[in-house]
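re: the backbone from monday

yeah here it is again, tokenized this time
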């Protein structure tokens, strides 16, 4: 049933007949013809001309991609208007919670037949990262589809695809007349891409979040270039640190002792030597993935006023990502040693210091994981379980004690989140909807757990 095994070379073309069948099955009508007002809306991509109409789910995906919810000024109003329409089409209630001024979380709820049971959360963020338009093949917000069916746009992988896949899976399940014991909540959150402080981090502390009575959450993952899907059961902790090095100022023509730059050099050496060790560890062990080692990258250097003035202070910043297996207290002690060894008066401060290292169990004793993995097995979908190398909103969900899995049903696709020419093939996208059509019923039908009514 699931076409997740489809390979690009053997790509099937969705024909009008397939679409007609699909529309009958889903109960969706009236959107068979390509929308001539949309740029490049013709199936088969190209720049207009004769083509095959987009599958309605693809058409919706491309419409959502065109909303400019891009930092630094995301058009969140456009996203909320779109989601309002989705809720109306699905005939489901939508609640809006303003977690911070101008930062609204939208919640669409499909009540279960036993609402006392814990719910299933399908989370996605509405914002996307900026683009370097000059490096893109197409306008990053035009959702152009090329002749291979590859849809280009910021958010195609991260994570507007997942948002629409959730919505389309729910639409189809509702059209089939299905009901499930557990309530399903779809949350659409702002600001994930800028750290989640005015989004999920605040929302998880809000009474409206507690009221959702969540038992298990799905959130974003990463594409997999091979046949498998990658699922993430934990994340590395992001630590963003700035090390401040004071030093003796003076004339740029002299050998001044104890300069800020000499201290910065020792700091950089300590951090980057450690970086080399970890890179070597990753490259020499077949069983390690990026999520299992600590990455360190020097991302900013600040200081100085003129060529011939030795500055009294210089700052250097690093982006570190620490696996959940690392003892964080010992790791910070190591940083303190590096600072102490680099000279007098060096201080540091964190711009980001996540310390929760909770992981979601991938043992069969976890009924949520069992439902998830058994369903994938039944679909012949193979899974690779990993630690997420970067940070998502799942870290806030896990930090309040809830199990969460990061999963984007994207295989046979290079990992292009935050990259130029981010794309997703329409067939892979459509397969992902079918994956959720199986996963959502399985999760929403997990039998009552000990302690549940
Ligand atoms: C630490 S908050 C920023 C979140 C961002 N997430 C991704 C997926 O790129 C990151 O890991 O840099
Ligand atoms: Zn994302
Ligand atoms: Zn992202």
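seq for it, each position gets an aa:
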């Amino acid at each position: 049933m699931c076409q997740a095994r489809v390979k690009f070379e053997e790509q099937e073309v969705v024909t009008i007949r397939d679409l007609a069948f699909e529309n009958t099955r889903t109960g969706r009508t009236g959107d068979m013809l390509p929308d001539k007002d949309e740029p490049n809306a013709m199936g088969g991509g190209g720049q207009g001309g004769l083509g095959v109409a987009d599958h309605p789910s693809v058409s919706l995906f491309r419409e959502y991609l065109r909303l400019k919810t891009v930092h630094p000024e995301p058009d969140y109003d456009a996203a909320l208007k779109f989601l309002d329409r989705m809720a109306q089409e699905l005939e489901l209630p939508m609640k809006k919670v303003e977690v911070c001024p101008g930062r609204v979380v939208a919640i669409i709820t499909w009540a279960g037949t036993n609402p006392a049971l814990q719910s299933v959360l399908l989370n996605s963020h509405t914002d996307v990262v900026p683009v370097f338009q000059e490096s893109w093949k197409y306008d990053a917000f035009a959702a152009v589809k090329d002749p291979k069916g590859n849809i280009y746009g910021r958010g195609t992988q991260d994570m507007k695809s997942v948002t629409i896949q959730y919505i389309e899976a729910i639409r189809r399940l509702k059209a089939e007349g299905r009901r499930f014991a557990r309530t399903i909540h779809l949350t659409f959150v702002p600001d994930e891409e800028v750290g989640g402080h005015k989004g999920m981090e605040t929302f998880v502390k809000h009474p409206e979040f507690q009221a959702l009575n969540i038992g298990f959450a799905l959130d974003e993952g990463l594409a997999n270039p091979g046949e498998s899907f990658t699922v993430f059961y934990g994340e590395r902790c992001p630590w963003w640190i700035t090390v401040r090095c004071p030093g003796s100022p003076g004339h740029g023509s002299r050998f001044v002792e104890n300069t800020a730059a000499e201290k910065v050099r020792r700091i950089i050496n300590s951090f980057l030597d450690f970086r080399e060790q970890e890179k070597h560890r990753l490259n020499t062990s077949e069983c390690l993935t990026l999520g299992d080692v600590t990455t360190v990258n020097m991302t900013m250097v600040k200081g100085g006023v003129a060529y011939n003035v030795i500055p009294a202070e210089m700052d250097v910043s690093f982006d570190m990502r620490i696996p959940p297996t690392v003892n964080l207290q010992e790791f910070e002690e190591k940083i303190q040693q590096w600072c102490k060894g680099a000279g007098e008066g060096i201080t540091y401060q964190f711009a980001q210091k996540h310390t929760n290292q909770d992981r979601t169990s991938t043992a069969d004793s976890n009924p949520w994981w069992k439902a998830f993995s058994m369903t994938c097995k039944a679909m012949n979908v193979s899974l690779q379980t990993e630690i997420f190398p970067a940070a998502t909103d799942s870290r806030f969900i896990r930090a309040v004690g809830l199990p969460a899995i990061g999963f984007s049903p994207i295989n046979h696709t290079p990992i292009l989140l935050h990259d130029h020419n981010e794309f997703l093939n329409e067939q892979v996208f459509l397969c992902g909807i079918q994956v959720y059509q199986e996963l959502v019923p399985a999760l929403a039908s997990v039998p009552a757990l000990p302690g549940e009514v």
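The pocket of zinc ion (ligand 3) is lined by residues 129, 158, 193, 417-418 (CB under 6 Å). The chain has two domains: 41-235+359-444, 237-323+325-348.
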